[in-house]
Design goal:
This protein is mainly beta. The chain is built from ten helices and 51 strands.
């Protein structure tokens, strides 16, 4: 423990030693002299404590002069100072080797930052993005090099796409493994079409640690190929208690409406292209009519504290978010309790973490499978702007030439309720001073109900329908592991050995009913009003899946003289998803580190830290459908499932194969190499890291067409041994901190990632991954996997202009004189080749300003919205378009608009993602110091501006246009628009 640092002593006191003594002072960083707001001050051996305010000032009453004050702050060396006869104690805390002692969670344990040999990035709660946050991915967007977070939709609770160092599979997805307080979460949907991580209150999260390379992720073996995200929730702190109340109001508006023709422009353009104008004398902005100024209320209450033996943290949270498209919203109610108890003379430590949540999502009819109605956004951008929105009574106007989008909003409903409980109990017992046994019992259980309702109506005519989908997700985890620690002079060793068993159960069933009478009672509340009960139209459906994973794992960390570092990991995973001949896979990793800054020849140099890292590891991927290794049969009688025994007559009944068994299917494997350099200069003021990585995925799991034409099934699953998907690139992360003696603090940081992706040795010319939507376009391939090209490559006919008749011309790529699908070309990828992020924090006394920018480049987007809606023929028929439809004056109104490079656009952007201005108000100024220890006011702007050439709603988009389970990339089709949001917040600490 370091000495007391600089101490300024006030006048001696002659108070009665039995009376309380008030001690005050200021706590600062010994290196930068900046205030350490939030630093804890505790009277040793008691529960009496306080925290420093925004200026580092504190005040505490101590029993007598024999008391000892303990000053502690994350990333700094704690100090213990006897009070004696002092009434003023100013303390300067020393940083723990320029934050190198910062604790990083690494899976089944933790380590100090300076001892890490793998590529790991830790983001603490103070660094999180601010504003309206629905899921953990949004907290770290732009904060970690190599991690690309795409908010694919502006919908409340919408899906977030996250990739770590690029996607590496075909049908296995690219989502990393999320681990919450030691529980590995199942990535499957918990119901509806929203993000399964929405159940977690961002206010409860203390830190997020991202494991990027295989030397770090191999401890999770079969599920580590796409990286691992470790989420740690807040815990209570011994020595003092606190109570925090926070509230915020968010105001959201549509940021970038599509530039469809105004009513006056529409009146000019329809006749100009040869159409017959129907002018209803209205002036309607339909996008404005179906959207709104939305409000979001967020209220959180938390409390925590404890003693040396028992600490606790609890919270309650409520968020009510309206979407900017009418009839869309998300409500979330969460509760959390974390408790840690020490027993048996501190040999037994019991940790309990429990969260319960209720979420409600209402979605507009954007993709309602129960309705033939066009989507709301599609209707809004295409509707005749001369049509009035409302009639003389203020009701949505009913007209014969189409459907008023406002009527569709009232008729269609998609709502989902989800109840989810996640908890674990983790007792650890110190067998000896060096050996600790830990048990982790975890349960993640969710139940959801999704209702898809269409109300009956005369105009437009529809009978009404209700479909209800019930879903259960249950995830049970049992882990046992031992940790052995040895410290002998120059040698430090930590060894881990454990076993894990996880069982995941998913069940879904649905029911439906048709033909409801027009009634004030919605079908959701009385399904018995439905009159069509036939099985032909309402056949119940459902499925159940059970997956098991058993694992044995071990890890050894060794440090010599705090200079030379080595880590070795191995995990053996057995999964019920794979064949009898390949139940288990072995996933090893090795990494080395050399702290050059500890060598004598660099001790006097400019580096406060300089470390070389090198690692190699193997991880796996098991995210494939269950039971595909087993045979499947059917007794259905049809031309495709039965074999004729005679030239004429009915097919005979019987049982036949629909899928052959394949006991040889095994893990998809990723081999990854990482070379890294961590450095710190100017006493830690400038820090950063550089990483080169190369990840090669092979044994690709793929559903292929059998070579033998006599097969019971048209496709079967297998490992393609020669096919590879390679991601390689360079990451650069820099951060600079400055603090002056007058309280001004400034830091600026950023990261950039250069990444290349390539597919080799695919058995197909193209594996389709994204399909088009819209009249005449449905199911047309847009992009896929092509040899020698990145994932998400657009495979399109190349538009080269118009002929003399105004008809589209396309490149004859194969030179045969005929334009066919064989003339499609690789026209760029949806994956960015560069990702860049910039963030800065400025503080002076009670004020602080945080700014976060993010962007990508080198990628393309396919504007399926324009392809399906904005061409001259539609304008001539009275449907509204943008100026893109009349880009070519000589284009014929009979020209079709097939999928082609005509609608392929640059997807690069640079966004001011987040800006927060805050002020920490001293409660003394309003006479509340006695009751309130801290007051914070803040204003946050989200999505304030974006610089891009893309003319759709937003360039950060990825509509799900999956083909046969293969994920699509970079397709924009009537995506829910992103909002510009302003959030005003108040935080009170008691």
């Amino acid at each position: 423990m370091a000495g007391p640092g600089r101490i300024a002593t006030g006048n001696p006191t002659t108070q009665n030693p039995s009376a309380d003594i008030t001690v005050s002072g200021r706590i600062t960083d010994a290196t930068t002299n900046e205030a350490l707001a939030g630093c804890s001050v505790v009277v040793k051996g008691t529960t009496r404590g306080t925290t420093a305010d925004a200026n580092g000032n504190y005040q505490i009453a101590v029993p007598n002069g024999n008391s000892v004050l303990v000053f502690g702050f994350i990333g700094f060396v704690s100090q213990e100072i006897p009070v004696g006869n002092q009434t003023t104690i100013n303390v300067s805390l020393k940083a723990s080797a320029s934050e190198l002692a910062q604790v990083v969670v690494i899976g089944y344990g933790s380590a100090s930052k300076k001892d890490m040999t793998g590529s790991v990035k830790s983001i603490k709660s103070a660094e999180f993005n601010k504003g309206i946050i629905n899921s953990p991915e949004q907290l770290l967007q732009g904060k970690v090099a190599g991690v690309n977070v795409t908010s694919a939709s502006g919908e409340p609770g919408g899906q977030q796409n996250i990739t770590i160092r690029g996607p590496g599979g075909v049908r296995t997805g690219s989502t990393p493994l999320f681990v919450l307080d030691g529980i590995a979460l199942d990535n499957s949907s918990t119901g509806g079409a929203t993000n399964p991580l929405n159940f977690l209150n961002p206010q409860d999260i203390e830190s997020i640690d991202v494991l990027k390379d295989a030397s770090a992720t191999a401890i999770y073996g079969a599920r580590g190929a796409n990286g691992v995200v470790l989420i740690t929730t807040k815990k209570g702190k011994a020595g003092f208690s606190n109570f925090t109340l926070s509230s915020s109001l968010g105001i959201s508006n549509l940021t970038r409406p599509l530039a469809v023709f105004s009513p006056d422009e529409y009146r000019r353009q329809v006749p100009a292209v040869g159409g017959v104008l129907e002018d209803f004398k209205g002036n309607t902005d339909w996008q404005k009519e179906v959207t709104r100024t939305a409000q979001t209320w967020n209220h959180n209450l938390s409390f925590g504290g404890g003693t040396d033996k028992l600490t606790y943290y609890g919270s309650l949270g409520v968020q009510n978010q309206e979407g900017i498209v009418k009839n869309s919203r998300m409500s979330r109610y969460t509760g959390r309790i974390n408790v840690s108890q020490k027993l048996l003379e501190d040999r037994l430590n019991l940790d309990v973490n429990l969260t319960a949540s209720y979420t409600y999502n209402q979605r507009p009819p954007t993709d309602n499978p129960t309705s033939s109605a066009v989507t709301i956004l599609g209707a809004a951008i295409s509707a005749n702007p001369t049509l009035p929105a409302y009639d003389s009574n203020g009701d949505p106007y009913k007209y014969l030439s189409g459907t008023n989008p406002l009527i569709t909003l009232n008729l269609e409903k998609d709502q989902t309720t989800i109840n989810r409980v996640v908890g674990n109990i983790s007792p650890s017992f110190k067998i000896t001073k060096d050996l600790v046994y830990k048990l982790n019992l975890g349960v993640d259980n969710s139940n959801s109900m999704r209702d898809l309702q269409s109300l009956p109506s005369l105009v437009p005519q529809q009978d009404g329908r209700l479909e209800t989908i019930y879903r259960i997700n249950r995830n049970i985890l049992v882990e046992n592991y031992f940790t052995y620690t040895l410290a002998r002079q120059d040698h430090n060793l930590t060894a881990l050995l454990g076993h894990s068993y996880q069982k995941i159960y998913v069940q879904e069933r649905s029911s439906s009913i048709n033909k409801f009478p027009i009634s004030p009672i919605e079908p959701i509340y009385n399904p018995g009003l439905g009159q069509d009960l036939t099985l032909a139209n309402n056949k119940p459906t459902g499925f159940a899946i059970e997956n098991e994973l058993q694992s044995f794992f071990g890890r050894v960390n060794y440090h010599y003289k705090d200079k030379y570092l080595a880590t070795a990991t191995v995990r053996a995973d057995g999964s019920s998803k794979f064949g009898a001949n390949n139940k288990y896979g072995i996933f090893p990793s090795f990494s080395l580190g050399w702290r050059l800054s500890e060598e004598s020849f660099l001790k006097a140099g400019p580096f406060s830290d300089l470390k070389l890292r090198a690692g190699w590891g193997r991880t796996g991927n098991q995210e494939i459908p269950s039971k595909i290794t087993q045979a499947l049969f059917t007794s259905q009688v049809s031309a495709s499932t039965s074999y004729p025994l005679a030239a004429t007559g009915a097919y005979p009944a019987g049982t036949s194969y629909t899928r052959l068994a394949n006991p040889d299917i095994q893990w998809e494997v990723s081999n990854q190499t990482d070379l890294g350099l961590d450095f710190g200069l100017f006493k830690g003021a400038l820090t950063g890291s550089v990483d080169y990585f190369r990840k090669v995925s092979n044994n690709i799991l793929l559903e292929v067409i059998p070579s033998d034409p006599v097969q019971p099934a048209g496709t079967f699953w297998t490992n393609v041994p020669d096919m590879t998907i390679t991601n390689q690139g360079l990451e650069l992360d820099l951060n600079y901190r400055y603090a002056s003696l007058n309280g001004f603090r400034f830091d600026i940081g950023g990261n950039i990632t250069f990444i290349d992706n390539i597919v080799n040795n695919s058995p197909y010319t193209v594996i389709p991954s994204g399909s088009a939507s819209g009249s005449g376009l449905t199911s047309a391939t847009i992009n896929g996997y092509i040899n020698g090209q990145p994932i998400g490559t657009f495979f399109l006919k190349n538009f080269i202009g118009l002929d003399d008749k105004g008809i589209s011309k396309f490149q004859d790529a194969d030179g045969d004189g005929i334009i066919t699908d064989k003339d499609r070309i690789a026209a760029g990828s949806a994956l960015p080749t560069k990702q860049f992020n910039l963030n800065s924090n400025i503080a002076y006394k009670g004020f602080d300003l945080a700014i976060n920018f993010n962007g990508v480049s080198g990628n393309n987007l396919y504007d399926n919205t324009a392809n399906a809606n904005f061409y001259k023929l539609r304008l001539s028929k009275g449907l509204n378009t943008t100026a893109e439809a009349i880009q070519y004056p000589n284009e014929s109104i009979n020209n079709s608009a097939p999928v082609s490079t005509r609608y392929l656009k640059n997807g690069s952007f640079f966004r001011l993602n987040n800006l927060t201005l805050g002020y920490n108000l001293d409660p003394k100024l309003i006479g509340m110091k006695r009751w309130i220890s801290g007051i914070r006011l803040s204003a946050t702007g989200q999505n304030l501006f974006v610089i891009t050439k893309y003319d759709g709603y937003d360039p950060e988009v990825n509509t799900d246009r999956t083909i046969n389970g293969i994920l699509s990339y970079g397709i924009d089709y009537l995506s829910y628009p992103k909002a510009r949001t302003f959030v005003f917040g108040l935080n009170l600490t008691f």
